[in-house]
Fold each of these.
Amino acid sequence: MKTNFLLIVLVTALFSPKFSSAQDAECARTLSLFSQSAKIKDYKSAEPYYNELIEGCVDFRLATYQYGERMFKAFIKEAEKNKNTADQKKYAEALIENYKLRLANFPDKTAKGETYADIAQVKFDNNLGSKASQYDAFEKAWKMDKESFNSPKALYSYFNVLIDLQGKGEKDLQEVFSKYDELIKKVEQEEIHRAEEAEPLIKKQEAGEKLSSGEERTLKNSEIYLRNYSAIKSSINTLLGDLADCDNLIPLYSKDFEQNKENVTWLRNAAGRLSAKECTKDPLFFKLVEALHQKEPSAKSALYLGQLAEKDGKYSKALEYYNQSAELEENPIDKARVYNKIANNYKRKGSYSTARSFYKKALNQQPSLGSAYLQIADMYAKSANDCGNNIFYKRAVYWLAADYARRAGRVDPSIKSSADAAVSSYMGRAPQKPDIFQEPDIDEGSTINIGCWIGESLRVPSL
């Protein structure tokens, strides 16, 4: 009886407000000591405090796991530098445990897809477990919360492991293609998001307006992400390499055509892959498109019929199909591609105004489509002699062309070198500083109007 009474007293004391406050005070003291050392990167001194926190203050503050992440990453880097594989593995496993504890104790402040992708990345970077288990870790993150699975590095590593497994015969080629489509779609969606953030700020800069510190930070981060996503997309395409060339695709889909010719999903995916890789000259492509259009007339089947018509030199018929495709298409990226094809057709025919309207429609759907800006710039440059009342205004068109080319490189870093070369060329043909001084009523910073089909105004740059 006495023992039971003492137990009740002890439990009551442990859960009393006074005890809780004392415990919180001790947790706060330990966290303060941990964060002070972590802030100055004295992680050896910080580690014991971290261990205390995860023993007795596991759900006290999110900062425990934020600083813990930095600490273990520093330990891993040092161990790797010293080629100490035992320590590298130990700290990699500790970092994974740090992520798991954060997920368990602060679920509302932790993005699941992002964090599970971080765990998978740690396994991949530090060679923990088999390739199959690494792939399963990425797959878990992807299936659980692909919305927050945004790391360019993790997206690349995810596909890299899959390619390794396919090379060993543990994954089939169709699974590689399906995952490629998912990951490229994700990358392109993120590119659109970042380009949409950047576009109004770029225009504000071009108009000579000063950005706030917050806007400058947003623009800088957007452009960093755009560069990273561009690099990752290129790397993923390199990994896919020869696996997705026509020599592999055509036998693969030819072999399965008869058993899948009634399967709309299979037809759609096969035709899409052949279209994307320009395998449209093979008779198989026509068979796929014809079967698909009969089963499910859609934006995609209209697009493929347009490609076939264009291949046969039937450009008017191709435009008809492309317009049908654009009207039916709901996916912004795919709609942008169709608008871009239509614009290219009109540009080829010299219908620049109509071409520009379709390039701009494409950009409305996919603001990261830098090639559309480059095409508009090219049309402006080719129209310079027709769009001005005198030599100065004719040459001023090149400033406008340079603005569009410059914007192309900022929203799509994959074409930055081409865009920079175009900017340099256009600026070399545009009016120079002495030309501005000789023109009455025009100074650097003045706004001038460009006539003819272009119909835009521009700000005279400071040279």
Amino acid sequence: MKITELKAVVEGLLFASGDEGMTVKQLSRILEINVTTVEHLLEELKYDYDHTERGIMIMQSHQVFHLTTKPEHSIYYKKLLETPQTSRMSQAALETLAIIAYQQPITRTEIEEIRGVKSDRSVQTLLSRSLIEEVGRREGVGRPILFGTSREFLTYFGLTSLEELPPLPENMDQEDIEHEADLFFEKFNEIESDIK
């Protein structure tokens, strides 16, 4: 694989890893190249971002690398966050919300195991709308963040407590849980349509 292609793959991996970011060793293992080459690719990417008119940059926190927005553009990101959300949530976001509501506290990896797809964007959407929140960290390797629904979640959907969620039948297998989550977010879609 050419260096330019490897750089593109590193960029994509950093983007896909979201807030968790990636270490040089993780990138080396995935790309099946040595650590020195990964470090060189990261330096080239940093240079590219610093010396062209780009909106993102690579940030290093301890041994972890992340893609992030440039601080000099922060005024625009603040405006984005202050803009009222008038668009409806995507099906993926509603499905993720349903899974969190029923399975909380739950990690992003566990959500992805249920959905079968990456859920970074959906989780970020739900966090930005304050429908979910970080409720702690799972014990074990990496201590992943646990997510749960927020008070705003209850308000948004007209619930007084989580006990008002439709109960799931006992002894459900994974397919049943996914089916119930589908029904759940379809109901949310209807509620959301009524609210808008």
Amino acid sequence: MTVRPMVGRDSQFFWDGTAAGELRVQTCNACGVLRFPPGPACPDCGVLDRGHVVATGDGTVFSYVVHRHPPVPGKELPIVIALVDLDEGVRMVGEVTDVPPEEMEIGMRLRVDFDRVDDQLTLPVWRRA
């Protein structure tokens, strides 16, 4: 069993993107500001007119943790979880799948990949660039 994300009106575009192999970031159609996580209104100008851009999928490790306990359904421990600063200027949290905990570093370059869990869920994961 895998822990599943909440999918709603504000995030459906993101999950549709991961299923298509795209990392989508919400944008305000009025002022152009990018934001993650997505939400109903622009935090800069308050407008409800939102769209998205497709990110390059490249980023830099801002911070990370190594999750050793408690167990996570569907995952083998330890799990490396990073805060990734995308080149587009927003920050995302995600699992790093190909870097051993002892090799993780702040500033490491990562690239997004996609883990197809089943027909309804594809998760973005991060790999060494």
